[in-house]
Amino acid sequence: MHNLTRKILFLLSDFSGTLLGWLFVFYLKYHSGLFAFSPPISFQQAMITGVVLGVFWVILFVIFGLYDWKISTSRVDEIFEIGKIIFGGCLALLLLTADFQNPVSVGRFFIVGYFLSLLALVGIGRLLVWTLHIHWLVKLGGLYRTAVIGYNEPAIQIFDKLKANPELGFKPIGFICDNGMQEEKVLGSIADIEQIIKKQRVTDVIFAIDSSHHKSLLGHLYKIDQLPVRSYIHPDLYDIVTGQTKLIQIYGIALMSISMQLIPWWENQIKRLLDILISVIGLVLSAPISLITAIFIKFDSKGGVIFKQKRIGKDGQMFCMYKFRSMYEKSDDHLEGYKFAKDDDPRVTKVGRWIRKWRLDEIPQFINILKGDMSFVGPRPDAVGFFEENINKMPFYHRRLLVRPGLTGYAQIRQNYHESNVEVEKKLRYDLYYVENLSVRLDLKIVLSTIRFLLLGKGR
Question: Domains (ranges, CATH) in the chain?
Answer without folding.
Answer: 3-140 (no CATH), 144-257 (3.40.50.720), 265-455 (no CATH)
